[in-house]
Amino acid sequence: MTHPVPTAQSGPDQGPAPVVLKKYGPRRALRVDLHTLSLLGILAVLVAVGGITEPDAFLDTGNLQLVLTQASVIGVVTVGVTLVITSGGIDLSVGAMVALASVWASTLATQEYGFAGILFTAVLVGLVAGLVNGVLIAYGRVVPFIATLAMLASARGLALMITDGKTQIVTVTSVLDLGLPDSYVLGIPPLVLIFAAVTAAGWLLLNRTTFGRRTIAIGGNAEAARLAGIDVRRQRLYLYLLSGLCCGIAAFMLIILSGSGQNTAGNLYELDAIAAAIIGGTLLSGGRGTITGSVLGVLIFTTITNIFALNNLQSDVQQIAKGAIIVAAVLVQSRTSRTET
Question: All domains of the chain, ordered by start, with CATH?
Answer without folding.
Answer: 36-48+55-340 (1.10.3470)
